[in-house]
Each structure stands twice: as C-alpha cells, then as structure tokens.
Amino acid sequence: MNIVGSYPKTRLRRLRKSKWIRNLISETSISTNDLILPIFIREGKNKIESIKSMPGIKRYSLDKLSSILNQVRKYKIPMVALFPYTPNLKKDKHGTEALNPNNLVCRGIKLVKKKFPEIGVMCDVALDPYTSHGHDGVIINKKIDNDQTIKILVKQALLQARMGCDIIAPSDMMDGRIGKIRQELDRNNFKDVSILSYAIKYASNFYGPFRDAVGSKSKLKNDKKTYQMDFRNSSEAFREVALDIKEGADMVMVKPGMIYLDIIKQIKNNFKVPVLAYQVSGEYFLIKNAIQKKILKDDSVIESLIAFKRAGACAIVTYFAIDIAKKIKNIYL
Ligand code: PBG
To answer: How many folded domains does the chain comprise?
Structure first.
C-alpha cells in the first residue's frame, strides 16, 4: 500500500484549509451519548457542598440531587455513576454499611430510578467507601482477603440490583468476582442487569482527589498495589479482560484513562466487547485547575475526550460530562 506522495504534488494542508473540510474528513467525533457523569452523594438535607480537591464538583444530599439530574436529562447524558460519601461513624473493618438496604447509595439509586427513569444508573461494587481502613476489601491476617471479600461483594451487587441499579460495576479488582456476581444476579432473576467490569484498574496515584471526595483518603494508610494492577504492565491487562469476559462481564473499563490510552487501544483491537474508560479525578484536576488559572484553554477538555474516542473507547466516565455536553450540543453534533 503506497500512501506516501511527495511535495509539491501532495500537500496535506489542502485537507486542513477550512473548518468544513476538516469536519468532513474527521475520523473521530464525540457526542453526549458517549458520556457518563460520576455524582457524589452525601447524607443530610439541603446540602450542595464543594470538594476542595475537585474544583467545580459537588457533593449532593439526596433532596438536592435533582438539581444535577435535571442537567443530565437536559443534555441527554445516558448514565450517571453514584458514589457515596459515608460518614465515619458508619465505617467499620468489614464495610458492613455496604450491605445496609437503606444506605446512601441504595436510597440514591431508588431516587434516580423513580424520578428520572430514563437515566441509566451505574454503581461501584467495592468496599472502600465503607471500610474504616479505606481498602476495597476486608483484611484478614494483614492481607486483603480475596475470597472473603467476594462473599460480601456478591451481596453488595445483589442489593444494588434490587434497588434498581442498571449496571453493576465491580471496581475492587478481586480475582473471580465477576463470575460469582453474575451467578448470584442470575439466580435472583436479574438477568438483565449488566456488569461493567473495571477489568483494568491500575494502582494509580491519580485517584487522590476522588478518595478525598468519598472520604477514604485519610483512612487509607498504604497503597492498593496488592490488588490493583501494576502500572508498569500491559500484557497483564489482556489476562484481566479475558478472564472477566469469560466470567460474564458485558463491558470492560480501563482506568485511569488519559495516561493509559495505549491500553484502551490494545483492548479495543483485541476483544470485541465495549471498552469504556475513566478520566479519573487526578486527570480532571490537572486540566480543570489549569483552565481555571487560564493556563489552558477550555478546548483542552474536548481534546482530552476526543483522545479517548480515537483510542477506541465507546464511552467515557468524566467529571467534565456536563461542561462538555453544553459545548458539543451546538458544535460537534
Ligand atoms: C473505588 C474507586 C476509586 C475510583 C473509582 N472507584 C478509587 C480507588 O480505587 O482508590 C477512582 C475514581 C477517580 O479517581 O476519579 N474502588
């Protein structure tokens, strides 16, 4: 295949000379269909509170959740991901609150499905919002115990499904949990509840602001490297995805996103399942902070999201979902 011409017969700038021709030949686009908005929820009434490490992002008490969900509806963002900020009082070693049918996330799911039935809801399956040590699983003999953790996660997933959660998203990185969760969902006739596996979740430094937002940062004494993936590896990602698909995952997530575009692309090219990506809190912060300080232009956001699409992501979990939906409504659709 000879695609190399030569100057002056070939001038690549001819294809860039005006906006319409650039639009005509563009290989990638983004629409609001591609966005998932994470939302932090909290206890109490009449609260919309700022989060220091995440400028522009708030925690909402449930009675105020409609203010953001109305925007999600208005801009036709297909799905939200709910993350609870659990008061310290309700945290313990075993993350017991995760299985409380009246916990914050359960009430949140019910509220969204009742008032905004057309919006999809996804929820993490992991214990970190609920444990006093901030880890995603239970600790036995000083280790995060895989199999004991799964027993709890299966119950957590079933509970969320019962509340009306559409997509169960295990983000805990225990081995074998997808199969067990699928089995339990099916046994209870939740065959239409999907599983989006955070199959490739790196032990990343870029989760810092999120941990602050859900209140697990000060709890966590060490890192999550015994269960989340080593960021020096990529072939391991294939094994993670292969196992999760075999166990019944409908979709897989790569996380973080921007600094793992190589992984998104490889997974997209090698597995024919929907690949989603998470532009995580640290990535959000870097861009948002620079925009607020006028060091970067607003359009940096769209550039970052287009990069996800170019790499092969079908959807992106991003804290910029509303900001960008407002913009692309007119320009890019
Ligand atoms: C919990 C979870 C984390 C994130 C999403 N779910 C943090 C972690 O694993 O420590 C991070 C999201 C972000 O940084 O935006 N398992």
So the answer is: 1
Q: Could you tell me the distance, in angstroms and rounded to a whole number, from the CA of residue 303 to the centre of ligand 1?
A: 23
Q: Domain of 266?
A: 30-330
Distance, CA 236 to ligand 1 centroid (Å)?
Answer: 20
Q: What is the pLDDT along the chain (333 residues), one digit of tens a residue?
A: 667 889 999 999 999 999 999 999 999 999 999 999 999 999 999 999 999 999 999 999 999 999 999 999 999 999 999 999 999 999 999 999 999 999 999 999 999 999 999 999 999 999 999 999 999 999 999 999 999 999 999 999 999 999 999 999 999 999 999 999 999 999 999 999 999 999 999 999 999 999 988 888 778 888 999 999 999 999 999 999 999 999 999 999 999 999 999 999 999 999 999 999 999 999 999 999 999 999 999 999 999 999 999 999 999 999 999 999 998 865 544
The domain that holds 36 is classified in CATH as 3.20.20.70
CA of 25 to the centre of ligand 1 (A): 37
Token couple for 129: 């919002």
Q: Which residues line ligand 1 (CB under 6 A)?
A: 124, 126, 128, 136, 171, 207, 210-211, 224, 280-281
22 inside domain: no
- Is 276 contained in some domain? yes
In the annotation, is 255 catalytic? yes
Is 219 among the catalytic positions? no
Atom 8, ligand 1: which residue's CA is nearest?
207
Pick from 153, 134, 108: nearest CA to 212: 134
The answer as to whether 48 is a domain residue is yes
Domain presence at residue 23 = no
